[in-house]
Amino acid sequence: MINFNLPPVVGDEEEYIRDAIQMRKICGDGKYTRLCSQWIEEQTGANKVLLTTSCTHALEMAALLLDIKEGDEVIMPSYTFVSTADAFIMRGAKAVFVDIRPDTMNIDEKLIESAITERTKAVVPVHYAGVSCEMDTINNIAHKYGLKVVEDAAQGIMSTYKGRALGTLGDYGCYSFHETKNLSMGEGGALLISDKNNNERAEIIREKGTNRSKFFRGEIDKYTWVSLGSSYLPSELNAAYLYAQLLKAQDVYNDRMQSWHLYYEMLKPLSEKGLIELPKVPDGCVHNAHMFYIKTMNLEERTRLIYYLRSNGIGAVFHYIPLHSAPAGIKYGRFVGKDNYTTKESERLLRLPIYYGLKREQVEFICEKIGRFYM
Hints:
Layout: H1 13-22, H2 31-44, E1 48-52, H3 55-65, E2 73-77, H4 82-89, E3 94-98, E4 120-123, H5 135-145, E5 148-152, E6 160-161, E7 164-165, E8 172-176, E9 189-193, H6 199-206, H7 212-216, H8 236-246, H9 249-272, E10 285-286, E11 292-295, H10 299-311, H11 327-332, E12 333-335, H12 342-346, E13 349-352, H13 360-373
Parallel strand pairs: 2-3, 2-4, 3-12, 4-5, 5-8
Antiparallel strand pairs: 1-9, 6-7, 6-10, 8-9, 11-13
Helix pairs in contact: 1-8, 2-8, 3-4, 3-6, 9-13
């Protein structure tokens, strides 16, 4: 069986976890939390990075930092994971969904402006498959209307847009280190902050609304509850696991990219015949091989292909059900404009196995079976 995903293991994770245990400091914000944050800051150029318990929690922190409240509206694509919407809906906002671009599956930047109302507070672009949204246009619109931009870069670590790291292009960026991502800590994430004036408040929110971080730096002689917050700080054990992977991040990137390019070259003949569509990466975007997908003719063909691949021991899956068609999406959001592509394209998309350590012969076997399906 070729699994759809296997969590990355680079080989040094146990060593770092053992070190964290021996230091008798495993509750978070210790050596490994700081090392991970520093690594991400250096690699991305972010002003400040705070490790979190998940990308969901990073998004929740962004919503708190933006003072999202009852009656606010936040614009986002419907083709995304539920956390993109949940983080803002939990603060009382309404999710305003707009259609996606069929080439990248990202939010259609040309539709954002028509969805803005006097209640709009923020735009949340989602960088699907680690391929950037059209951020210049999105940031220009946000600046024009005085809106904030929160990048859902859950899939975007080590991807760039015009030379800049995803997650550093808006006011806040959110990474995921879930076991399905390129780099993992089991469950975890990170919040990237662009404006240093927000650093202290973000630390307070992450530390349950206390100024505990300042206390541990010796800046105050005691800490206390000063604002809203929650427990968004991950364990040192999780951070130690992640740090081992960050040190091998380039190896992971190279390995995944080899698989991605092999898929592309081997499936290109089917694409040239018009039987499938392959991923598109716009100029100026450098992706991270987070995902390799194909698009079939329609839902019925995709369903048959999934069963065919599974019958041959290949774990291939479809992805998001558009949020605007879900019960909670109907209750807490609304779709602006026409759904020209969100539903149609989501029903065609099929994700193929890709993970660190996937063997060349496995990719070749998968492509050979897809070719046989279309014979």
